[in-house]
Amino acid sequence: xNSRQVxxxxxxxxxxxxxxxxxxxxxxxxxxxxxxxxxxxxxIALASKVVNREVNKAGLIDLAGAQGTSNMxxxxxxxxxxxxxxxxxxxxxxxxxxxxxxxxxxxxxxxVNNYGKYVIAIDPLDGSxxxxxxxSIGTIFSIYRxxxxxxxxxxxxxILQKGSKQVAAGYVLxxxxxxxxxxxxxxxxxxxxxxxxxxxxxxxxxMKMPTDGSIYSINEGLAHSFSDDIRHxxxxxxxxxxxxxxxxxxxxxxxxxxxxxGIYIYPATAKSPNGKLRLMYECNALAFVxxxxxxxxxxxxxxxxxxxxxxxxxxxxxxxxxxxxxxxxSKTQ
Length: 333
Ligand code: AFP
What we know:
The protein is an alpha+beta fold and 333 residues long. 31% of the residues lie in helices and 23% in strands. A hairpin with a 5-residue loop joins strand 1 (66-70) and strand 2. The protein is globular and about 65 Å long. 1,6-di-O-phosphono-alpha-D-fructofuranose (AFP) is lined by residues 75, 126-129, 219, 248-250, 253, 276-277.
């Protein structure tokens, strides 16, 4: 049998490109020491598999429900929030490539290794209030290259970088299947988890977000405290018979809009004048992924990736999705 026959076999069909192989095959695109970024992505993928296993068992063992604590942003922490935070931080610390990890679930940054070259911002389990009711949740991550010298103490300038400085970003969606979607600035690629093999396989190469769409995702229950402009935009969506879809898990809402075309908006509200979502843990990563797939992300006025953060847990209004929809909704501001 020659290699062409092996590849074309109908008896043993190819299983596709595993994440590890994809990372290795594409690491030359990366301008810095490529092996280190690859290792970071592998560490994140491994931690996500562990979290996936635990998310799937949450109803069986005592992992569902509230932990009884709040995070820095004031959200109720679920047990799985805390667990996922430990899983990801531990994996990143042990890998040796990260100098610091900042997490939505941790008040201050965690310095892990002064010889690491990368800073990771992570929302370990987003949408976690959906855990108890078996609805999709996600992990969101951003990777930055540190600015200070390797070996020195990590400084604020390493952490508070604009989203445009991300060298990689992505999310894991724990849904009807588990997917890892990420970009290193050369398009956005999606991988589906095969639990039998314990591997992610390339299932959505070079994802493209439709330029237009007809799905809008927003918590309309808060409409009384939206600006007139947002209310006007929503009226237009209704006049056009658009479809309203809101899961309340950003990753799930984003992923659906990414595949089908749509917009997700979490605007400023009376209760949260800067919106609810966190710039560094949620918005930057999804903005990078969206842009790499042809979408747009703004805070209603500015490109998300151009906002310089001033604090770790900073919030921002967030408009993300199909380019034409985000332009129209942002224009109303
Ligand atoms: P939780 O992680 O506390 O469930 O928050 C989820 C989230 O950050 C994002 O995933 C949702 O889109 C958004 O908040 C939902 O917020 P509202 O409940 O205010 O609509």
